[in-house]
Write a structure and sequence with these properties.
Elements lengths: L5 H20 L16 H18 L6 H26 L4 H24 L2 H6 L5 H25 L1 H7 L7 H21 L3 H25 L5 H22 L13
Helix pairs in contact: 1-2, 1-10, 2-3, 3-4, 4-6, 4-10, 6-7, 6-8, 7-8, 8-9, 9-10
């Protein structure tokens, strides 16, 4: 097996779980949603997404297959972004939902890109040098930083809804909604400009993890039958995995480094 970091292992296991879920449900898992009902060969896409998730997740765990697995997953996620996320932004540029969905896909792309940059073979470095090594890591980090911006804005656009999700045992729900929104925005900007980027990546990953553990898992554990809540729990866990990989990419950098993206 080839485990580059704990985040790498979590990301690979998340992809495996998404693949298994997709095959069992016969429908798109949250990472790939939403997909319009009228898309040609929609059922084929369902199983293709599930197979790519499962195969790439397994492949990422093995030395000989890590590079091609990361390459295929990255290519598929980029294609998904261009075909299903970016067009939504052009159709509804003022809709926060379009930007939020684009950000979610961008986080997964960033995680896959970091792994591709790490595991790239000589073939990859010679033919796709711009996407490997330090250049690839920079692109992945920029994508992740950009993705955090709509996450932060979403907390203000849906302020009441965000405050309502804060666990009941915490005081000042509205203040927490403001704080987490500002934290996402600050982390995104810090990563983009290269100021304390390692700390920003780690703290944003922790924040996503806390949403998963303190908000979504308790809701599902309480026996919620709401499909949206179950979907958001799975998506939040997958985003945590993608963010974790990006945070791991800064491990050789000082926590408070400046101008090193």
């Amino acid at each position: 097996m080839r485990i580059a970091s704990f985040g790498h292992a979590v990301f690979a296991l998340a992809m495996i779980a998404l693949g298994i879920m997709g095959l069992i449900k016969g429908d798109f898992t949250p990472v790939w949603q939403p997909v319009p009902k009228g898309v040609p060969a929609r059922e084929l896409l369902v199983y293709l997404c599930a197979f790519i998730s499962l195969a790439s997740g397994i492949g990422l765990l093995w030395h000989r297959t890590a590079a091609p697995a990361a390459r295929v997953l990255l290519a598929w996620l980029l294609l998904w972004l261009l075909l299903f996320r970016v067009p939504d932004i052009f159709r509804a540029p003022t809709s926060e939902g379009s930007w939020f969905a684009c950000g979610e896909t961008a986080v997964m792309i960033a995680g896959a890109w970091v792994l591709y940059a790490w595991f790239a073979t000589d073939w990859d470095r010679h033919r796709l040098g711009f996407a490997t090594g330090d250049k690839g890591l920079r692109i992945a980090r920029v994508l992740y930083g950009l993705a955090l911006i709509p996450f932060g804005i979403g907390h203000f656009v849906y302020l009441k809804e965000t405050a309502a999700m804060v666990p009941g045992w915490l005081p000042s729900h509205l203040a927490w909604a403001y704080f987490t929104g500002c934290a996402f925005l600050a982390a995104g900007v810090a990563i983009l400009i290269g100021v304390c980027a390692r700390a920003a990546a780690a703290l944003s990953t922790l924040q996503i993890a806390m949403f998963t553990l303190l908000v979504w898992i308790p809701i599902v554990a309480a026996g919620s039958t709401n499909a949206f809540q179950r979907s958001e729990t799975i998506l939040s866990a997958a985003l945590m995995a993608g963010a974790w990989v990006v945070a791991d990419s800064y491990r050789s950098m000082p926590w408070l480094a400046v101008n090193k993206r």
